[in-house]
Specification:
Chain lengths: ~120, ~140
């Protein structure tokens, strides 16, 4: 089995790219791969807890928690989050926060890196 | 010495979106990645500006005056100071009627020894072929 590093810079609402990234992460985990998910820029919106699920907007807190229980390693860019007012106390349990070098370190031993840019 | 080479390809114009600046800040983060790795493991970052992305290299940017933000130009200079390989596509510069005189080429004021390389796209392709992973911004 391999290791997949996914970097996603797109926002939770206003783009479907994060939905795709989370679904892909789930599929890879189900196939037995190790998955690191890095969110940066507007993608850090994924880290906020208390997301309210509407039918018309992407809501990924529930599936994300399920994937984290399956072993998904998910980390947000701390600077990008802080710049947007997403503070540690508002971060989902288990959602890590690090500087950008974490993403590069994850890429170091990844078999594949899938980088999904922002809007 | 185990090395992973990352290629940061910037293809969007600056300021309209955050992508170009995030490309540069992530590339610059290659300088501190060792804290997460085993001794001797290395991650390198090469940066290439292509397509509309070459507009990020325009010199004399006034981002600090107008937006109160560090300019993309300054981030390019920081990349040079940190000895990152920075390439700019010549054909795309030509497409915008730009020359080397219009873009940031060095960071002498910071003490950087490396300079920006204006090269044909074929050379950027060659660089990309040598990377382990490519990240498009």
């Amino acid at each position: 089995m391999g290791k997949l590093t996914i970097g996603c810079f797109a926002s939770l609402v206003g783009s479907m790219s994060l939905d795709f990234a989370v679904r892909l992460a789930g599929t890879a985990l189900d196939k037995g791969h190790k998955v690191d998910l890095w969110v940066s820029g507007n993608g850090t919106m994924l880290s906020i807890k208390g997301q309210r699920a509407f039918k018309d907007y992407s809501a990924l807190e529930k599936p994300l928690k399920e994937l984290m229980e399956k072993g998904l390693n998910v980390t947000a860019c701390e600077a990008c989050a802080e710049a947007r007012g997403y503070h540690k106390e508002n971060t989902l349990d288990g959602f890590k926060r690090h500087s950008m070098d974490w993403y590069l370190a994850s890429s170091f031993d990844a078999d594949r890196v899938l980088h999904i840019g922002g809007e | 010495m185990p090395t992973t080479k990352l290629g940061f390809i910037v293809q969007r114009a600056g300021y309209k979106s955050e992508n170009p600046k995030l490309a540069l800040t992530h590339a610059i983060a290659s300088q501190s990645v060792e804290v997460y790795l085993n001794d001797g493991d290395i991650v390198t970052a090469d940066i290439a500006f292509i397509g509309d992305g070459v507009l990020n290299c325009k010199k004399d940017q006034k981002a600090m005056d107008i937006y109160k933000l560090t300019s993309t130009e300054t981030h390019i200079k920081m990349s040079l100071l940190l000895d990152l390989n920075v390439m700019v596509c010549k054909e795309d510069l030509d497409r915008f009627g730009m020359t080397e005189n219009d873009i940031v080429l060095d960071a002498e004021e910071f003490g950087a020894e490396l300079t920006v390389k204006v090269v044909p796209f074929a050379e950027i392709t060659k660089m990309m072929e040598g990377m382990n992973h490519l990240l498009f911004f």
